[in-house]
Amino acid sequence: MRAIRYIDGTYPKGTVLTKTQLADLGGTPLDPDIEKRGATIEFPVALLDFDGREIRQVRMPPAVALREGELIILSRIQSSVQNLLMALEEYDPASPKTKRLLQVALQKYQELVLDVIFGKKGFLSRSILGNRIPRSGRAVLLPSEDPDPMVVHVPATMMRRIRVRDGGLVVVGRDPVIWYGGIEILRAKESEEEVIRLHPLVFRQLGGDCDGDQVWIAAVPPSSIPESERKVGGFVRRNGKWPVPMSSSGTRVDWENVGYQGSLKTEPDGFSIGPEDILGGTEEMEDCERILRKEVASECRQAALGYDVETWKRKVLEVNRAQLVMKTGMGPVGAAAMYLRILAGDDCHLKRSANVVSERLAQKLLSHKRAKKKGESYDHQDCLDLLNRRKPWDETEREEAATALAMMLGLEPRHVRPIVYAIWRHGQGLTALIKDRNPLFTATTGRASHRETALELAKRIFIDRRGDPDGPVPFMLRAIERARSERASEEGDRGTGAVRIPDPGALRDEGGHLLPGDGPAHEAGPRDAPAHALPAQA
Amino acid sequence: MKLDRETLRLTLSLPRPDGPFISMNGVERTFVPVVTRAGAKDRQEVAKGLLMRALEMALADHHHQGSPPPDGDVVMAYFRRLLAASPLVENVPASDLEREGCAEMVRVMGVPPLPGRIEREFDEANWGILDPSSTSQGRHINEVFRRADGNPYSLCKTHYENAIGLKHMTSRMQLLRTAFESHLPQMDPEPPLVGNVRNRLSGKNFVTALMDLGVKTFEDSTVVSESAAARMTCRRVLRQAFTTREPVRLLVTEGSPIDPKGPIALIESKDHTIRARRIAYPAVVTKIEEHAAVSFGLPARKYVLTFEARIPLRTGDKISGRHGNKGVAWVVPDAEMPLVTCPWDPSKTIRADVCMSPFSVVKRRMMSLLWEMMAANRARAKGEIYTVGPWEVPGELSFEKLTAEGHGRKRTAWLGDHRLEYPVFAGLLYWIRLDKLAPEGSSSSDDRLHVGPLGLSMDQTKNGQRRDPSKSMAMFHRGLKSLLASSALRSTMDVNYLEELAGVLEPGFRLGDLVEPTAAAPLIKE
Fold it and tell me: What ipTM did this prediction achieve?
């Protein structure tokens, strides 16, 4: 049996452990030092990492976990490490097959580490990028009987947690926030229920209903209170309209008597629709159509009479197809957004263009239903088709594509042009462009400097550095500052007039190692957006 | 298991997985059961790893202890044992319907890669074999479906066994399935007066008034009387598992009452208390299981605690009928509910248990709901219970016939001592509770920074509101720049990203210029 040597520098004893000692259920417990510190596993042969670099050793994370979620993450890595150790034990220098197995095990281990750190539910996304708004909360949405539209009723426990008193200001919103009306500043009022209650006037701008939707609130920080005081209910005051079923005469809001008085029905009148209305087409049904602003009577009647199997089948398929648009759109739009940002690399102008296009693409998807109602001719899929076209464009087509995309997304061409030109330079659509590359390139952020940072961060995360000033967070912050100052100095060196497109092939040094930063600059037409220097420090 | 001694090739035959291998489009297709809930990939990896380990153990027993060569059953026995003991595996309490529904999912092998436009493409030839309203996402679109098992309406098992009156509705089919599969069992369920012949739902027949109650029935909000809410108490079973290598002292026994976040075990060597983190209501510990487990290659113990709570319906909980008519419950005193002329005995008046907006029904053309109310009124009047199929409706219960018999008539109603202007249509409707309870969906966070064991600031996974660029951009657009700066203050990586986006609206915008130096947030070390 081959002994596996742990050569971690911080491990004083230099003890040699065998795989059996590590894995045997009833055997010697793992050395507590290794358990706490992790260890480095040395390979008897040079292997290739996912970037094609030769490596001779890999770190095993410490087995310390205080929380269950973390335990699972570390357990996943641990099981992968054990596979690696098994492959190592089986390694025979005379057998190329065992080397291949070892190589595969190493690759799996590295992929898993990357996934654990950078994946959608990865450590980075969960803990650093995806952190929460301080003093915030969310709960199920219900309408409020309070006549004041500027008041939001918040559960008492939540009020205490976010430290807001009665009458205090909070930002209210509902995810996804797809436009600027998607948030509102309101005054909080304590409630004994577990729900957030909003005035019906606020529902429309948030796009909420009461079939289980949740809304979020966030306390307005003290420094922002003067600014926010001027904006309380700003949107609803300017644009609020009574939801149609609640108003018997028009939809204008009489802000002097805003409550439920004036034009609103003060008492329920028992308006109801029954089967006789459906089959008979009564006045109530006409009222219902008027209130809903939809011609529903004939369809309701048809449904009441019952569909034959063929019609029912066709309708089910139609409805299903339409309802899946959102679900199916999320993936491709998200992927396109990621591809655009990867393509933009470190170039701030490309990145700005990529960010704007991605955000508008996502908004386009989310407002799909509304756009369809308005009769817009283009949807998110048309934009994706344009971005993903595999056939090379000529120069005229390039400009046409930029203009068309700008029109579809409702943006100015100068915002769209840089990223479209970047795609054009590669001569094929976005999906193909990225897919034809190393898949791990897409798994990470794609930026060379990010990847270097990430790998370093990965190393640091797996070393126990609690309370260490050189720990992962300070390291990450320094890395960001370094990247910014690098960019700022590059901006200074570069001058104006060129859009820089990162070329992954140019990101390696003579030894084939990845280098941080951009590749060589390419001339790609006049710069559209005005240049501005980035701050050297946060 | 067979060993070919010449080639040293080992062949293992595992029991054939349940599920049919059927002919589709003239081609014999293999359906692979898949689970497409969150983390499917992880589950597959875990299961694969455990299976390999089971195989290894079976072979080791054979080699070292001379036990008979392992067959598939022996390996599967090891596999099941490992599954129970693994710290990676947690029992997911779900309704039987949901578990069975997962097993109904199939992946159609051999679907060509999707070209261009990505949307549901349902081959007509699959009608009757696959359920077209299956909801699969992402790259599995057009690949993952529910099996329809050859019924003529192409309905999956969940629909087929529980839905009624589908002849009268075409939309919200997938919502129907989700509602059925996430329904909570009632403490004292009633059989539906009009139910599917195979019905497995547990709910209550409530007198439902289809009327506009102003703000209370706004946007699908569903008004429920206090007495009806009390009758809708459901049983909630949750399990919590933890694995440890240290000696543990359990602080609860079977039958112990337990509060949310109450202590359940103490790891004395670490002075660490494990708390009941999964329950939002007072509950009772009904079962404690202990398994031998492995943690980081070392022996450990896995504890699985089962809690049971009885939960009355409260404002904010989600309820649904069997027609996609889901809504959030607004519980009000009985006196605030309308009195309606009894639909099955017009000489009496009764108080409505539930009120829902007629607009919700008409807007979605849910005529099956009206049909159910009429049929249930007839059943109640005649003292019968009707069992029907999911789609077809017997002749004597047709929509037109029931209406002609007067079961669809609107009748006088009162609210308090006030007679309502319009007559109201009321009837009995079967309601179920869904697995969305208000306290469990509510969460909040303070502004203290939680430092996790790795030294990084950690947010609780569910607490508070996730920060994202679209919220920040909305704040920016509304001129709430100071608020934007404050909310982004503690973000590390996205500051630059926000500046890039905001730069489109206001070139040269610097978030840093708006940030005022503030005192460091207090740290909590976990």
Answer: 0.83
The residue written with tokens 């943006």 in the block is A411
Strand partners, B354: B208, B224
Q: How far apart are CA B39 and CA A214, in angstroms?
A: 23
For B405, the closest chain A residue by CA position comes to A276
Alpha-carbon distance A242 to A253, whole Å?
A: 6
Helix intervals (H) in B21-171:
40-65, 72-85, 96-104, 157-162
Interface residue A279 vs chain B (CB under 8 A): yes
Record: contact A324-B458, CB cut-off 8 A: no
Helix (H) or strand (E) holding A426: helix A413-426
Question: How far apart are alpha carbons A63 and A146 in whole angstroms?
Answer: 54
Rg value, chain B, Cα: 28
Q: Do the beta carbons of residue B243 and residue B87 sit within 8 Å?
A: yes
Beta strand A183-191 with A151-155 is parallel
What gap in Å lies between CA B297 and CA A20, rounded to an integer?
10
The Cα–Cα gap between B171 and B365 comes to 8
Q: How far apart are CA A79 and CA B296, in angstroms?
A: 8
Residues B227 and B333: their CA atoms lie apart, in Å, by 8
Residue A144 token pair: 């409020």
Chosen from B55, B170, B264 to mutate, greatest number of chain A CBs within 10 A: B170
Which pLDDT score, from 0 to 100, does residue A447 have? 40
pTM above 0.80, yes or no: no
pLDDT of residue B138: 53
Instruction: Give the whole-angstrom CA distance, residue A164 versus residue A158.
Output: 9
Strand locations in B424-505 (E): 425-434, 443-445, 449-451, 457-458, 465-466
Rounded CA-CA distance A345/A199 in Å is: 45
Cβ–Cβ under 8 Å, residues A472 and B455: yes
In this structure, what DSSP letter does residue A394 have? Answer: -
Whole-number pLDDT of residue B460 = 44
Check pLDDT > 70 for residue A105: yes
Are A340 and A419 a contacting pair, CB within 8 Å? Answer: yes
Say whether A76 and B413 touch across the interface (CB within 8 A): no
Q: Measured between beta carbons, which residues in chain B are less than 8 angstroms from residue A288?
A: 358-359, 362
pLDDT for A425-440, tens place per residue? 766 667 655 544 433 3
- Predicted local distance difference test score (pLDDT) of residue B472: 72
Query: Which tokens hold the place of B285?
Result: 């510990």
Share of chain A above pLDDT 70, in %: 54
Q: What angle do CA B376, B377, B381 make, to 5 degrees?
A: 115
Instruction: List chain B residues with pLDDT less than 50.
Output: 17-25, 28-41, 114-117, 452-462, 491-493, 516-526
CB–CB of B487 and A200 under 8 A?
no
SS3 state at B354: strand
Residues of B in contact with A80 (CB under 8 A): none
3-state secondary structure of A272: strand
Bridge partners (DSSP) of residue B413 are: B340
Nearest to B330 among A142, A328, A472 (CB): A142
Residues 6+ apart with CB under 8 A from B245: B295, B296, B298, B299, B300, B301
For A125, which residue in chain B has the nearest alpha carbon? B493
CA atoms within 13 A on the CB side of B478: 30
Residue type, B185: P
Query: pLDDT (tens digit, 9 = 90+) per residue, A508-533?
Result: 333 433 333 332 222 222 222 222 32
3-state secondary structure A137-192: EEEEEEECCCCCCCEEEEEHHHHHHHCCCCCCEEEEECCCCCCHHHEEEEEEEEEC
- Pairing verdict, β A132-133 and B465-466: antiparallel
- Can you tell me the distance from the alpha carbon of A34 to that of A12, in angstroms, rounded to the nearest whole number? 10
Cis peptide before A176 (omega within 30 of 0): yes
